[in-house]
Amino acid sequence: MEKIGFIGVGIMGKPMAKNLINAGYDIIAYDIIEKALNEIVEYGADRGTSPKNVAENSDVIFTMLPNSPHVKEVVLGKNGVIEGVRKGQILIDMSSIAPLVSQEIAKELEKKGVEILDAPVSGGEEKAKSGTLAFMVGGKKEVFEKYKGILDVMGGSVTLVGDIGAGQTTKLANQVIVALNIAAVAEAMVLGKKAGVDPEKIFNAIRGGLAGSKCLEDKAPRMLKGNFAPGFKMKLHLKDLTNVFETSRSLHIAMPLTAQVMEMMQVLIADGNEEIDHGGLALFYEKMNRISLKKSNNK
C-alpha cells in the first residue's frame, strides 16, 4: 500500500483520514490545529511537522483545507508541499476552491513531475464518517484510474468529470443547487406554518413526491427542531458561493437566484451565525416573517 500524507484533519478531514487508517493505510498527518493533529495521531497516524515534511514522507498527498488561499499556502508556500515532493508523486486536493487555483497549482507541480487531481466532495460530516462522500474529480483519466481505489475508501461515488479544475467547477454547481434547495425548503415551511398548517405534516406529505430531495430529508427535520449544529458550516457555504461568483463573473454568467441566497447568508453571518449549519438559512425566513418553525415542545 502507498504511504499517504494527509494535510487538514478538521471536521471533514479527520473522519476521512480515520477511514483510510481503518482500511490499513499508513498515514502521516499534519494540521496547524494541534488538538486536531493530536487526535488523529492517537488514532494511529504518524505526526507530520509541516506540509513539506508530509510530502517528503509519503507517496500520495491529500489536502482537505478551507479555501483557495489555504491550499496555495500549504502547497506552494514556505515549507509547503512543493518543497518536499519528488517526481512520480501525486497530490489529491479534496478542498473546495476556485477552479483557476487548482489549475495554477497543477502547473507548478507539473514542473516537479508531480501529478494532481482536484477532487472536492459533497456529503458533509455524516457522510465523511460513513465513508459515503460523493467525489467530483478533475484530472488525467489514467491518474484517476490509478488512485480511484483510495478515494473509494472515503466515498460512495467517485466520478471523473473532466480535466484539472473540472472537479471544482462541478462542486460549485453542486453548492448552487444545495443552497437554493435549502432556501426553498425554509421558504416553503414558513409559508405552511404562517398559513396554519403543521410544517412536519407538510414535510411528510411532500417528501415522496417531486419536491423530495436529500436536502429536504436532512434539513427540514433540523429546521423543525431548531437544530443547526454544523454538518457543513454557513461560513464555508458562503465561501463556496463566493468562488461561484468569482467564476461566473469571469464567464459573464447571470446567477440571480444564487445571488439572493448569498445575501441571505451574508445577513445571517453578520448576525453571528457563521459557525452554524447551512440549514440555518431557515433563521433568515423566521426573522423576516416573525415566526419560528420549532414546535412548542422543542423550545
TrEMBL record:
Name of protein: 2-hydroxy-3-oxopropionate reductase
Keyword annotations: NAD, Oxidoreductase
Gene Ontology biological-process entries: carboxylic acid catabolic process; glyoxylate metabolic process
NAD as UniProt keyword: yes
Span of domain 6-phosphogluconate dehydrogenase NADP-binding: 3-162
Source species: marine sediment metagenome
NCBIfam families referenced in this protein's UniProt entry, alphabetically: PRK11559.1, tartro_sem_red
MF GO annotations: 2-hydroxy-3-oxopropionate reductase activity; NAD binding; NADP binding
Domain 3-hydroxyisobutyrate dehydrogenase-like NAD-binding residues, every copy: 165-280
